[in-house]
Design a protein that fits this description.
Radius of gyration: 35 Å
Distance between the termini: 62 Å
Oligomer: single chain
Amino acid sequence: MIAKLLIYIATFLNVSKRYNKVKTFFRNLLENDDYKYKRYFDIFMILMVLSSVFILLYDIQNTIGQALYIYDIYVVTTVFVTEYLIRFWIYNDCREIILQEAEEAAFLKREFDTKKVLKAIFLKKLEYVTSPFAIIDLLAILPAYRPLRILRIFMLFRLFKILRYTKSINSFLTIIKTKKFELITLLMLVSFITFIGGAVIYVFEYHTNPNIHSFFDALYWSLITISTVGYGDISPVTEQGRILTMFLILAGIAFISFSTSIIASAFSEKLQEIKSQRIENEAHKLSSFYLICGYSKITETIAKTLQRDNEKFIIVDIDEEHIESASNHGFLALKADITKKETLQLFNFQNVKKIFILTNDDIINTFITLSLNSYAPLIDIIAIANDERNENKIQKAGAKYVINPTKISALFASEYIGNPVSFEIITAIFSNESKTRVDEIEILKGSFLQNKLIGEYDFKQNDNLILIGILKFKPAKLYRHSIYFMDRYFYFNPDAEILIEESDVLLVIGDVRNINYLKYKLQKSSL
């Protein structure tokens, strides 16, 4: 009968969407650092802990009012008890233990072992109850029982609850834990030297030093001496005791140096890992951003432009020096191999605007393009080809646009030789310091420019902008003088009778504020 009831309840809970949704919510709220509401919950719990401890300290010399008493006894305690019970509930899934036993019993054609299941459930819950944080949570609840005033000392355990909600302290404890063996060994050595020092001073000065009345006094003196604190309440009076003091002081300095070096080495080993985790968390939370693969001089220029335009982006490179250089410039940079599956899973590719592949090696660019195109085929990839012969290969790998820096540099050089003044003007326009910019504006569906003729809207009069050209998916009727590239038709200095259609791109030049305002008007009218 009990077995059937357990199986029925476990099966019901397993298929219940509401139950699983609620349990997942509380598990995320209490344990998932990436959950958006956990941060607010942590702040709330820290404030609850601090306020309850403040009431305890205030109550020592003052009489707390009825409002504070109710808040401390009923509100704070209720929150702590509720949290404890929820953590007890979500620690493990009892239904999985029951269903696993039921499945195994049915497969082996034997009876359902109720005792085995109940024992497994009990041991799992006991595992949580005896865990350090669960014990702290329980001790933090005890002060609510006011008749026993001695229990109020456990109020201080509420401060330890803050460890649950502060990630930085947890990171510190994790780092210390990695050097547990070294620190325990050092602690045992310090304890041994302290005991020997106490024993020696006790033998030499018990009958001659009026401040040493017991072996505990000798141990106390040895500990404060080896820690180099030296309160001065106990001082050796014999020559042997003073020699021992000098030895303990030198040993104490050595032990402090050793412990400092151990902790420093642990931090240096884990610092990069913590930094990478922080950047990975930031990358996971990015929305509407550019992904840049590889750090180079070209990357630096593009990143500064995106930064100037308040665009979000992240740089991914496998080279430590490149990542350090990018970080020094204030860019969000992650040291990782972008071709690895675990790296790709860090990003929500639905939020990626475009992908730039900008390493100095064409082979690497081709491989990265191939990997990203297979993983996110709908995102435009812009890659560079350092060698003109590799342009076609990178394009076949999946890049929508391939840029050859050498070819562009040659075009600029020839422009400078033939027209130095125009070159300087173009350079000034494209520099980061200039507010004048050449930009492209996409015509959104339903916007006020859709289905208008070029001549019907005066860009110069209305927006103080100059229209350079228009890029269309299909050729404009009656007009054949266009440049065909990237599967589109570009009309330079377009005629007034050309129709502006949805998804057309206008190429304009003007002040960046005017360009942004026109984009805003188009977006607003489309909505």
